């Protein structure tokens, strides 16, 4: 999609125009348009192709709503619409296909929003208000500093391997020791422990987002997230266990998009079943931190998840973290584990029941409650590695090294791909047994 889709000044253009296929949707739209102070006559009968025909001979409005219901190839037709739209037009699409992939592709093409039929007054009002706000405070204006965002998903190969413990510790680490604004998204909607680890009530933020994805914007994020400290906010839930998760994943994608604008870092505590149900969750994730342990079941599922990531998230760097290291008491040896997964373990975290109990008693993350423990050293190194993803010159890695034992400048791709003990960074990879 061309850069002409970026919002621009309103100028002397008409504020709004719509091309809608069916009478029911038009009947829902017209009262809201009147409420917004616009002319209801600008709500035209006809879909996207009618819009293309009309706009090829007339000026584009500031906000354009088009119906994709009669389009056989929505993405191709949207590209055709871009050819006749003037720069700065904000486009809202309407359709009846409830598909996350289509939604994601439409947003990537430059569409401002996608509304699913049947349309409701509140849904239309929210979307049009957000579109109108683009002109009063557009993003990415001249003089703004480029915003760098890093996202990591922490996935456990099995239940109980410590993925949530690591996710909350990384979020705390980024927010406190690295002083970066951080969002923690706990996607275990029924049994998540993110808020519990931070001694917080989870609130209804994530539940509300799932129930009303069209409401998700910067203001919603500000109100719905629970603040843990000045730089850390969490979104989680304790949904009733008799209420199944009813979502197509749209809410999760929109949350990730808003987090990327509002925070420096996003940490996603991602239950492994979510990979199956919502593979698009990893589209914009920089690092997938795969938490495992030295068991046969974990070895099997590490192989399966690594294969899945290669197919579904080729842009994300997988990082293998082995937890609960117990010397010779493991079910299988480290060497056998690495041979089976055909790559090196990047980091090892020792078994420390006393430290885990201490964190639970204090209502703090593992790393906050045990700052001086040798057990948390690898966690700091994991955090440094993740932050290094977006640093082309390695500057922040060098800075993090001053704060907590960094890794220095290195080739991230080869590092995460596996290293032998003879490699230069071996000492950083081999954490305390």
Write a concise keyword list for the protein shown above.
eight-stranded mixed beta sheet, five-stranded parallel beta sheet, 19 helices, disordered N terminus, nucleotide-binding, Pilus assembly protein CpaE, ParA/MinD_ATPase, P-loop_NTPase, CheY-like_superfamily
Outline:
Keywords: ATP-binding, Nucleotide-binding. This is Pilus assembly protein CpaE. With about 425 residues, this protein is an alpha/beta fold.
3D architecture notes:
InterPro entries: CheY-like_superfamily (IPR011006), P-loop_NTPase (IPR027417), ParA/MinD_ATPase (IPR050625). Keywords: ATP-binding, Nucleotide-binding. This is Pilus assembly protein CpaE. The strands form 2 sheets. An 8-stranded mixed beta sheet has the order 8-9-7-10-6-11-12-13, with helices on both faces. A 5-stranded parallel beta sheet has the order 2-1-3-4-5, sandwiched between helices. It has helices at residues 23-35, 48-55, 74-84, 100-108, 121-136, 163-176, 194-197, 205-211, 218-224, 250-262, 272-277, 296-312, 334-341, 353-362, 366-369, 377-388, 395-404, 412-416, 426-429; strands spanning 16-20, 43-45, 63-67, 90-95, 113-116, 150-156, 182-186, 226-229, 232-235, 265-269, 287-292, 317-325, 347-350. Helix 2 runs parallel beside helix 3 (74-84). It is an alpha/beta fold and 433 residues long.
